């Protein structure tokens, strides 16, 4: 077995990368290092599963009223412990907790995360992941308030995910393209495997939970029906479908080989804009996708432009290859 000692490791990357021509601030390097080290630990825990009693429900609910798995709670606690002593961090917010947690109180950065995305896949040994987003606190000296987090996706200074699959792989953007690292499980280091990740504009692959078809709005139904019609239909090509039910794994596929991912509004809960969370899932994934040359919308607006009004707000999500996202926006117009 050849271990990739020639790859740039994450520490070297942080020390040498110059997104938009500027070195990464030391405080941001510290915070990213803390997040990434925690994900390395989490990858190890996830891989142990039943061997250390980590599978199954915790018997509790989160702020969204969803049943929590044991690993949801473990991941949340690990991430808080892993970053709480980081001096550049002012506070954090998690999909699993109702309120933000102040940390140092006077740091520059705010961290948001979905500690373990794709919870329904934990017990069946299918890829899951951690999604994170970093914002710059507008008034570093002022006491932390929930409203500090309510910034549009355009304010993100970094975002990424770590997918715990056959390999543990991270995608990261600092606002100047997307890079990917894979964890060397022997040394515990994340090693650079791809820079300048790009999403092809054109694709023949879509991802959506088809079991909800009868509940969708007309534009999404029309789009999917046209994909299903194949070469004889309006799109004049045969489409393939994939649905992993872990956003992090579905988006990883889109970043790796193109495609369009959708979790749209549906009429079962007409007053809810969608299932996925703007701050913990949609914004960081939209930042990555835009930085890789793709696009991301709620059907009408670009997700990155949405002004959040609630930490836990939900949003309809359509993201990936630009041609498909543009077509879906056109159908919604
Ligand atoms: P989670 O954060 O509680 O795991 O929920 C989000 C997940 C996404 O990862 C995925 O795209 C979606 O829920 C799957 O939903 P469904 O089971 O309706 O297909
Ligand atoms: Mg999630």
TrEMBL record:
Subcellular location: Cytoplasm
Enzyme Commission numbers on file: 3.1.3.11
Annotated keywords: Carbohydrate metabolism, Cytoplasm, Hydrolase, Magnesium, Metal-binding
Domain of life according to the entry: Bacteria
Domain Fructose-1-6-bisphosphatase class I N-terminal positions: 28-194
The protein's required cofactors: Mg(2+)
Pathway: Carbohydrate biosynthesis
One example GO MF annotation: magnesium ion binding
UniProt binding sites for substrate: 117-120, 209, 275
Chain residues that bind Mg(2+) 1: 95, 114, 116
Reactions listed under catalytic activity: beta-D-fructose 1,6-bisphosphate + H2O = beta-D-fructose 6-phosphate + phosphate
Residues involved in Mg(2+) 2 binding: 114, 117, 281
Matching PANTHER family: FRUCTOSE-1,6-BISPHOSPHATASE-RELATED, SEDOHEPTULOSE-1,7-BISPHOSPHATASE, CHLOROPLASTIC
Family: Belongs to the FBPase class 1 family.
The protein's name: Fructose-1,6-bisphosphatase class 1
Organism in which the protein naturally occurs: Polynucleobacter tropicus
Annotated gene: fbp
């Amino acid at each position: 077995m050849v271990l990739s000692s020639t790859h740039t490791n994450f520490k070297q990357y942080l020390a040498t990368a110059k997104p938009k021509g500027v070195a990464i601030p030391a405080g941001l390097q510290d915070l990213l290092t803390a997040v990434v080290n925690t994900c390395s630990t989490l990858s190890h825990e996830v891989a142990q599963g039943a061997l250390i009693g980590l599978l199954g429900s915790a018997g509790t609910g989160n702020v969204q009223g969803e049943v929590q798995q044991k690993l949801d709670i473990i991941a949340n606690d690990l991430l808080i412990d892993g970053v709480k002593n980081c001096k550049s961090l002012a506070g954090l917010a998690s999909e699993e907790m109702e309120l933000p947690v102040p940390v140092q109180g006077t740091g520059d950065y705010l961290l948001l995360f979905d500690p373990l995305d794709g919870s329904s896949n934990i017990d069946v040994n299918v890829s899951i992941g951690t999604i994170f987003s970093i914002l710059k606190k507008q008034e570093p000296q002022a006491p932390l308030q929930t409203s500090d987090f309510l910034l549009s996706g355009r304010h993100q200074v970094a975002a990424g995910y770590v997918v715990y699959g056959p390999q543990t792989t991270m995608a990261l953007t600092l606002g100047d393209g997307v890079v990917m690292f894979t964890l060397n499980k022997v040394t515990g280091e994340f090693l650079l495997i791809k820079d300048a990740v790009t999403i092809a504009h054109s694709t023949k692959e879509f991802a959506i939970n088809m079991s909800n078809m009868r509940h969708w709005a007309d534009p999404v139904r029309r789009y999917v029906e046209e994909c299903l019609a194949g070469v004889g239909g309006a799109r004049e090509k045969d489409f393939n479908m994939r649905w992993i039910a872990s956003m992090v794994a579905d988006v990883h596929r889109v970043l790796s080989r193109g495609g369009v991912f959708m979790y749209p509004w549906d009429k079962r809960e007409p007053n809810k804009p969608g299932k996925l969370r703007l701050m913990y899932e949609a914004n960081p994934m939209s930042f990555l996708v835009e930085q890789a040359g793709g696009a991301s919308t709620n059907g009408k607006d670009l997700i990155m432009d949405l002004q959040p009004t609630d930490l836990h707000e939900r949003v309809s999500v359509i993201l990936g290859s630009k041609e498909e996202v543009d077509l879906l926006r056109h159908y919604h117009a």
